[in-house]
């Protein structure tokens, strides 16, 4: 069977149109293919009647078919721009949630990279923190200043106690550390009684016992990695701390030390060892029985080495071991109280529709708002922590103030964004409303409404936002479109189920 030239040209044109239709998105592909075939029939008929030479007619028909390719590419680009939108401007609810999850992941990742934040998040509270008390001279108001002498500590430890069942003492001083062939280094060493870590309940990694009556040296993780290169074989070896020989007995995690004094290492002295200097230090005591009625801070009168009585101040370690959660919750509470004064809380008027919304659509709308508010909290928490501890070694009080202010600001603006974003979405498909148009005139505010009208691209309705609040039109109103409007939104890409 031999094909005639006109028949062969017609097959080639159909092949070109079929190839062009493959460039069109799948939902519109068959419709465009049918449209092009119908147009090809009319074009071929018109040019065949006009030109007696079939070659000229076939060339014009082929030109028409080649023109379908750029048309398909142009429509494809327009379809992409219409379908893929940013969550902050024209995006769907799914894209918005994905962006929020991404912000959580980024803020948490930054928190893990900051040593201070990582230490706070992994901190384990001391044993029986409420009954652990930090004792200081009542004549000093700053608890970061050493005020207790070693003689005072020994007086309390020797006496029979009815209030406390354990005392621990430490004093911080700059001392040199040297081990065998390594160069000596200086650091802040806390000379402490041997029961300090047991009283606090601090965990020690790579714990080693000291032979005989040698003191034990516990390193901070920062000192261990900076000065000893994180060498695990250093534990159990002898080290010279000032004039004392000690055994390197372990390391504690960063952030575990919450008592006054910045320290690089702790020298735990045996009971019968007289290694304390004549300076002042700190005393930690454990209450024998809880005294909840006394509160977390109170005064007491106690004997001194001179045989007289003096006033001392006892403060629970609860405040020092408190995590950032309390500051965060307080900031969220302040933001919730300030929200009604800074933005309107109602989401607008949503009148009844002729087509009743399904229960799933209604639940999904409120669930989306709850999801945004829920995801907002961890974002505010981690970002405020990152800002508060961006600089390592910052004063704890300063860090708390930074966390409080940043968490309050972020939470307040985040809540405002959540409500504003919810108002700008369709209650059926949760898509962003588009195509704002000015309606009415300001001079006719009391006769007819004037403001901005937005439309749902899926054809579910119109949103009327008044330019000026009046007694009869104070909140934005949602107008559901009836079935007569469906002819304008017949494209499959726009069809969104949501009605019964």
Descriptive account of the structure:
By secondary structure, the protein is an alpha+beta fold. Among the domains are: 5-83, no CATH class; 130-316, no CATH class; 434-494, no CATH class. It is 40% helix and 20% strand. It contains 11 helices and 16 strands. It has a 6-stranded mixed beta barrel. A 5-stranded mixed sheet has the order 12-16-15-14-13, with no helix packed on it. Helix 4 runs parallel beside helix 10 and helix 10 runs antiparallel to helix 11. The two termini are 57 Å apart.
Write a short abstract of this structure.
The protein has 500 residues and is an alpha+beta fold. It has 11 helices and 16 strands. The protein has helices at 5-22, 26-50, 54-83, 93-113, 115-121, 150-158, 196-200, 221-228, 325-342, 359-388, 396-423, and strands spanning 132-137, 148-149, 164-178, 185-193, 216-220, 238-241, 244-252, 265-269, 280-287, 297-303, 309-316, 349-350, 434-439, 451-455, 461-466, 477-480.
Give the strand order, joined by hyphens, for the main sheet. Answer: 3-4-8-5-7-6
Helical stretch count?
A: 11
- Following the backbone from N to C, one meets helices and strands in this order, namely HHHHHEEHEEHEHEEEEEEHEHHEEEE
User: How would a textbook summarize the main sheet?
Assistant: 6 strands, mixed, barrel
Instruction: State mean pLDDT (0 to 100 scale).
Output: 80
Secondary structure tally: strands: 16
Strand content: 15-25%
Shape: elongated
Q: What are the key terms here?
A:
500 residues, alpha+beta, 16 strands
SSE blueprint and pairings:
Blueprint: H1 5-22, H2 26-50, H3 54-83, H4 93-113, H5 115-121, E1 132-137, E2 148-149, H6 150-158, E3 164-178, E4 185-193, H7 196-200, E5 216-220, H8 221-228, E6 238-241, E7 244-252, E8 265-269, E9 280-287, E10 297-303, E11 309-316, H9 325-342, E12 349-350, H10 359-388, H11 396-423, E13 434-439, E14 451-455, E15 461-466, E16 477-480
Parallel strand pairs: 4-8, 5-7, 12-16
Antiparallel strand pairs: 1-9, 1-11, 2-9, 3-4, 3-6, 3-9, 5-8, 6-7, 10-11, 13-14, 14-15, 15-16
């Amino acid at each position: 069977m031999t094909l005639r030239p006109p028949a062969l040209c017609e097959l080639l044109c159909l092949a070109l149109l079929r190839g062009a239709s493959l460039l069109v998105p799948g939902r519109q592909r068959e419709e465009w293919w049918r449209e092009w075939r119908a147009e090809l029939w009319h074009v071929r008929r018109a040019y065949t009647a006009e030109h007696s030479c079939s070659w000229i007619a076939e060339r014009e028909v082929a030109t028409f078919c080649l023109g379908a390719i750029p048309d398909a590419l142009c429509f494809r680009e327009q379809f992409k721009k219409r379908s893929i939108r940013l969550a902050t401007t024209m995006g769907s609810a799914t894209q918005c949630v994905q962006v929020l999850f991404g912000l959580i992941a980024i803020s948490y990742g930054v928190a893990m990279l900051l040593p201070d934040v990582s230490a706070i998040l992994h901190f384990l509270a001391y044993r029986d923190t409420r009954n652990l008390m930090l004792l200081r001279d009542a004549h000093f108001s700053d608890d970061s200043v050493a005020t207790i002498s070693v003689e005072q500590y020994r007086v309390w430890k020797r006496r029979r106690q009815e209030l406390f069942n354990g005392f621990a003492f430490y004093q911080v001083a700059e001392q040199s550390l040297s081990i065998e062939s390594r160069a000596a280094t200086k650091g802040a060493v806390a000379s402490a009684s041997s029961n300090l870590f047991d009283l606090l309940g601090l965990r020690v990694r790579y714990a080693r016992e000291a032979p005989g009556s040698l003191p034990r040296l516990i390193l901070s993780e920062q000192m261990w990695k900076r000065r000893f290169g994180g060498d695990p074989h250093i534990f159990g070896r002898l080290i010279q701390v000032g004039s004392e020989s000690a055994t390197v007995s372990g390391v504690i995690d960063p952030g575990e030390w919450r008592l006054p004094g910045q320290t690089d290492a702790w020298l735990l002295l045996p009971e019968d060892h007289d290694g304390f200097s004549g300076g002042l230090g700190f005393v930690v005591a454990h209450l024998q029985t809880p005294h909840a009625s006394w509160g977390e801070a109170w005064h007491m009168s106690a004997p001194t080495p001179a045989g007289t009585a003096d006033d001392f101040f006892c403060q629970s370690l609860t405040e020092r071991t408190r995590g950032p959660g309390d500051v965060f919750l307080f900031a969220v509470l302040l933001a919730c109280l300030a929200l009604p004064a800074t933005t309107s809380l109602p989401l607008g008027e949503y009148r009844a529709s002729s087509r009743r919304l399904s229960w799933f659509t209604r639940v999904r709308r409120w669930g989306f708002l709850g999801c945004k508010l829920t995801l907002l909290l961890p974002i505010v928490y981690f970002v405020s922590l990152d800002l508060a501890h961006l600089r390592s070694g910052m004063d704890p009080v300063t860090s708390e103030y930074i966390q409080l202010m940043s968490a309050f600001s972020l939470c307040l603006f985040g809540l405002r964004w959540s409500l504003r974003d919810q108002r700008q979405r369709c209650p059926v498909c949760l898509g962003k409303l588009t195509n704002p148009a000015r309606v009415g005139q300001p001079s006719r505010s009391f006769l007819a409404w004037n403001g901005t009208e937005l439309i749902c691209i899926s054809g579910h309705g119109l949103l009327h936002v008044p330019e000026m609040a009046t007694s009869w039109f104070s909140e934005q109103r949602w107008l559901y479109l009836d079935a007569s409007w469906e002819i304008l939104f017949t494209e499959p890409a726009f069809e969104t189920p949501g009605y019964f």
